[in-house]
Design goal:
Distance between the termini: 44 Å
Strand order of the largest sheet: 6-7-8-3-9-10
GO molecular function: ATP binding; ATP hydrolysis activity
Oligomer: single chain
InterPro entries: AAA+_ATPase, ABC_transporter-like_ATP-bd, ABC_transporter-like_CS, ABC_transporter_ATP-binding, ABC_transprt_ATP-bd_su_PQQ, P-loop_NTPase
Protein name: ABC transporter related
Helix content: 25-40%
Keywords: ATP-binding, Nodulation, Nucleotide-binding, Transport
Family: Belongs to the ABC transporter superfamily.
Number of domains: 2
Bound molecules: adenosine-5'-triphosphate
Length: 265
């Protein structure tokens, strides 16, 4: 399979345990090139563990992770070159400016001089923060800092972006702005995205979703299919759908996880 045909991310039969606690159990999922895929799961489902394996923070002992066909264990540099990531926990240096944070990260990826400056400028325009270049990150709102993290994750032009609960703790309009930026990157730039969330209203009916619960994938399909076809259609503007519009997905999810809790009992 050549690089153009390979999925952006392939996770195959991955399991991971912390001592006796099995955090992931035989998880497989695929993010096709240029597509938005949501990973929906409650707290403790295993999302962050999966991201830690996909970014090689943890080594994969059971199963395989491939990024555009490159195996993360045997060809880590080639695989990670295609990957950008926004972690759940904030990792910007608050006492450096936006520019310094981005420039430092760009330098790690071998960028310097004019190309680096141009890249930072383009990315800050993309996330709507061009006027904050020389301000310390400490002065930004939570949503603005998140947008800087997205810019930073894209500095080396990855073709796959992983976001772990990127909107958690943000107000509705900041969440909407971030969802909008990410969906535009998919639609206009062909970026592939894995969007991990426990917030139902960030998912549109036509989105490809995987539902993760207690370390296992318990459902996969479009969000509309998983919700039994009762999900309200996405609105054309990329705001989260109003509360209640995703009630069917939430109800389906609760029914699935309750059934599993019953199985386990
Ligand atoms: N370093 C660790 N040591 C021990 N157990 C861990 C560790 N990291 C995660 N776990 C456990 O693994 C399971 C999955 O956790 P994980 O953080 O991956 O879930 P999550 O879906 O990202 O949840 P959240 O949204 O709350 O971050 C949980 O039971 C958690 O307690």
């Amino acid at each position: 399979m050549n690089d153009q045909e390979a999925p952006a991310l392939e996770i195959r039969a991955v399991s991971h345990a912390f001592g006796a606690r099995r955090a992931l159990d035989d998880v497989s999922l695929t993010v096709p090139a240029g597509r938005f895929v949501a990973l929906l799961g409650p707290n403790g489902a295993g999302k962050t563990t999966l991201f830690s394996l996909a970014t090689r923070l943890y080594s994969t002992r059971e199963g395989a992770v491939r990024i555009f066909g490159r195996d993360l264990a045997s060809a880590p540099s080639a695989a990670l070159a295609e990957l950008g990531v926004v972690f759940q926990n904030r990792t910007l240096d608050l006492d450096l400016t936006v520019n310094q944070n981005l420039a430092y990260h760009g330098a790690l990826h071998g960028l310097s001089g004019r190309p680096l400056k141009a890249r930072i400028s383009a990315l800050l325009h993309l996330v709507g923060l061009a006027d904050r270049l020389h301000e310390k990150v400490r002065t930004l709102s939570g949503g603005q800092a998140r947008r800087v993290e997205i810019a930073r994750a894209l500095i080396h032009r990855p073709r796959l972006l992983l976001l772990d609960e990127a909107t958690v703790g943000l107000d509705l309009s900041s969440r909407a702005a971030i969802v909008d930026i990410v969906r535009r990157l998919v639609a206009e730039d062909g970026l592939a995205v894995l969007w991990a969330t426990h917030i139902f209203d960030e998912v549109h009916p036509e989105d490809d979703i995987y539902v993760l619960d207690k370390g296992r994938i318990i459902a996969h399909g479009t969000a509309g299919e998983v919700a039994g076809g009762h999900l309200a259609p996405a609105r054309p503007e990329a705001e989260p759908v109003p509360e209640g519009g995703t009630a069917a997905l939430e109800a389906a999810f609760r029914a699935m996880t309750a059934a599993r809790a019953g199985d386990a009992a």
